[in-house]
Amino acid sequence: MYIYPDNLKSKATLWLWELRDIGIVGIGCLISVFALAQLGFILPIVFTAAYAFLSIRIEDTSILDFIRYALQFFVLRQQTYDWGMRIEAR
Fold first, then answer.
1. What is the domain extent for residue 21?
2. Residues 31/23, Cβ–Cβ less than 8 Å
3. What are phi and psi of 62, to 5 degrees?
4. Residue 56: inside a domain
5. Does any domain span residue 23?
6. Who's near 38: CB < 8 A, 6+ residues apart?
7. Could you give the CA distance from residue 23 to residue 62 in angstroms, rounded to a whole number?
8. Strand partners, 61
């Protein structure tokens, strides 16, 4: 018996994350453990945990997506509006 997802074009997910995010968190955990064991440096664990929390997907959106969209809207892309009448040439 096969169970197919409702939307076959949707991205692959596992638990609450996309597979890409699980890969990033896994590699981040490995680097964090090595940094903690060899250097006593805890900052990579904090970044990995923060990324794992922000990338949790609920109803196909995450907090990280919202932050990314807000940054693009308010900071990265200039919002311009042209007011005035347009004269059409005939």
1. 12-76
2. no
3. -135, 165
4. yes
5. yes
6. none
7. 17
8. 58
